[in-house]
Predict the structure.
Amino acid sequence: MSNPAVMALLFDVFGTVVDWRGSITAEVKAFGQRHGLERDWEAFAQDWRALYQPAMEEVRSAQRGFVKLDVLHRENLDKLFVKYDIVGISEEDTDHLNRAWHRLTPWADTVPGMNRLRRRFILASMSNGNIALMVNMARYSALPWDAILGAEVARAYKPMPESYLRSCEALSLPPEQCMLVAAHNSDLEAARACGLRTAYVNRPTEYGPLQTVDFNATSDWDFIADSMIDLADKMECPL
Amino acid sequence: MSNPAVMALLFDVFGTVVDWRGSITAEVKAFGQRHGLERDWEAFAQDWRALYQPAMEEVRSAQRGFVKLDVLHRENLDKLFVKYDIVGISEEDTDHLNRAWHRLTPWADTVPGMNRLRRRFILASMSNGNIALMVNMARYSALPWDAILGAEVARAYKPMPESYLRSCEALSLPPEQCMLVAAHNSDLEAARACGLRTAYVNRPTEYGPLQTVDFNATSDWDFIADSMIDLADKMECPL
């Protein structure tokens, strides 16, 4: 590693740290079972995720002020209830389902890898998820964050430059002492443009059969790893 | 406890969670020894803390925009170098000394008590210390925060109402589901005025011989405890 030394790792979360597709699919299937509803729940989960970028785009393009991802997830869920003809669900049940995004399960290598990385580096979430979502997920899945940063602290969604730069600034570190860890080449591209270091972690099953990109690193990122444990090895973190 | 249930505990940190006076006194004494300087280091530590409120007051009164506490601590340290006739200290040494505030030691009951409290509640720092300071302190002293909130996230120093209200908002919780834990009656007073619940933890030696207030609870706070372990007992947190 060239100087200056990396001090903090900033993590993309959905897809990189946790398996949102597996978790959300399991949650919507269980929801369907509870309510006696037969639908294509795998498609429902993918559709829910597909509405994520357009919803954030309204904020990025300043068509609306900053709103938390929980709110965007809920608006998108309400749209899917219409699309999938789901009616008569109580507010409590709907809210519980919306909070499925707070109960995402990490990939098997995530927690052991992060625990090793944490011995050498500050670990912060740098997700588009809001603070409460990230706090609840961390408690649910024992993610060892030193700080919850990202969109809500920066008041800007990735890949806006402010989202990266304000996260570094929150740690009182220059961008070159921060490294984004992500499974998405485009996210790393945006971070590199802001001066951050970059680590790609391969998650080739994130989108399942629908995955079309991010089967491997498409640039010479500072680190390229197959898992968080592999990243901990490559960054020379003690066992 | 009356409804609605408390979900999150927000902690004052300097004095409540950590013994700033003991830690800073030890650091400045060691600094003096390294540099062969004989001064009244206990007075130096107290003077450093005494400059804290006036410095924040310039921000609270909008005489200047929001600046991180690390910057205020450094400005105050530079003033004390003049007052105590300390010259010729390198930038690196001065910065290291300024970061003594990142290396504060918890009271003996803090970590065991917080670990129990964390089983039932979200724990967040709600300090005037900046994010980097709080992250480094947590790593130094194994403080089990779920989130670092407080002045820098709220862009307002306590006891401004915004500092309390924006911290609750960051957790997506109404104030009545958040409880401030503090050793300072005035801090609890300000939090209660914002609708938060309140827990007083007695720290009668925080200021040593100079302590003039906060020897005990001066109001009917929701909880009154002698230590974090006592608070965990009173809040019925499992061993």
Remarks:
- Residues 20-34 of chain B form the longest helix (15 residues).
